[in-house]
Structures are given as structure tokens and as C-alpha cells.
Fold this sequence. Notes:
The chain is of the alpha/beta class. The protein has helices spanning 29-43, 61-66, 71-95, 117-125, 143-153, 187-192, 200-208, 223-228; strands at 9-14, 48-53, 100-104, 113-114, 129-133, 158-163, 168-169, 181-182, 184-186, 213-217, 235-238. The protein is globular, with a radius of gyration of 17 Å.
Amino acid sequence: MEQTLKYHRILLKLSGEALAGPQGGGIDPRQAEEIALRVGEVRQLGVDVAIVIGAGNVWRGRVGIERGMDRATADYMGMIATVMNALALMDAMERSGMVTRVQSAVEMHAVAEPYIRRRAIRHLEKGRVVILGGGTGNPYFSTDTAAALRAMEIGADVLIKATKVDGVYDRDPMLYPDAVRFDRLTYMDAINRRLKVMDSTALSLCMDNRLPILVLNLWQPDVLRQAVFGEPVGTLVND
């Protein structure tokens, strides 16, 4: 029996650490290739894929802020770092046979298109993977919030947050072996219990616009493919 796609257009939110090498920082091309492999699997099914990526592998703004750096300056540095990560993903995906476009909310004409909503949607309709760098283009907003915003702008069916754990737990499973994993949460559960699904601004934005969030471990084999068919993987956050 042929499976039916549940999600036809997804926004995949990646942390910068997804590209980090064994040392925990920097950009490891092998990690980019692994991500490209997983994205390629769902693209072959006809799923439209847009990606928002963070910058934690290159720059953590809070480190600068703790040393007295201006918050806006630290945030702009992070936005620029996300474009570096976007280019690394673009290269890996193009080498694997996918057609991509990088768009940046911070204008960098030599390396990326400016983010234009209608153009991003047109790229998706043509089967291109759209990698969105530069956050929202504004300081004081996280890449979680950028992911929520872009997901709604492009008409995504779901925001998939890719992590290194297989869902949302009541506490850190790396520190507490008895931590309990949730199969499903409401937006208010996630906000009130401060479960670190995404930051509160991103969660509120998704709640107000009824955009479901799926938290999963991208590194589990076949998990992204299972997700787009609506199979029970990770933790689903919705109404």
C-alpha cells in the first residue's frame, strides 16, 4: 500500500552545531554531506524543503555580550555566521545533485540572493531547496524565531526542529537517565513548562498561527522520511 505524504512543504530548522566537527565547533563538510543526504531523501518524494540554520558552531553572541559587547553587534555577527553555514550546506547539496538557492535577510549580493518571500516560494515550486540565512535580519531575534516566521511566510505545513535528541523531555536526558520523553505537547505546555522546545517568541508565533512543530533527532536513520509521512517520530507540538 502506497503511503501518502502528510507534509508537502517543510521548514527544517538546524542548529549551527549540526555542521560542527568532532571538536564541537567550526564547519565540517562531512556533516554538511550527511544533512544533504537526509534532505535529498525527502526531496525525492516531492517534498518542498526550506532550511533555516543557526550559527552556534561559528559564533555565540552571548559570549561577546558577557564580555560587554553591544547586543546588536553580537547579533549581526551571528547573522553573518549563519550565511557561512548556509553556503556550506548549499555546496554539499549541489554536489549531491540537488538544486539550491541561498537567500539572506542581511544583503550579501556576491554570495546570496536577498530574502524575498515570493521568490523563495517560486524556488520551492520549482523543486529547489531554499536555504535561508541571516536570521530575520534584525538583532534581538533568534534563529528559532526566524524559522517560525519564514515557515509561515512560505506556507510550510510544519516546522521541523532537528536536534541531537529524539524529542522533547521533561529534563535534560543527557544528565538525567530517567528523563521522560513527550510524544505530544500543546504550545501552552511547552511555554509554561519552559521545556526549551524553541524560545518563547517562536513558540508564541507558531501558536498564534497554528503552525505545528515537530522535534526530532535528524541523525536517526530514515527519521525525516518517516516524519513527512506522518509516522510517530519525535515530539509533536500543536494545539
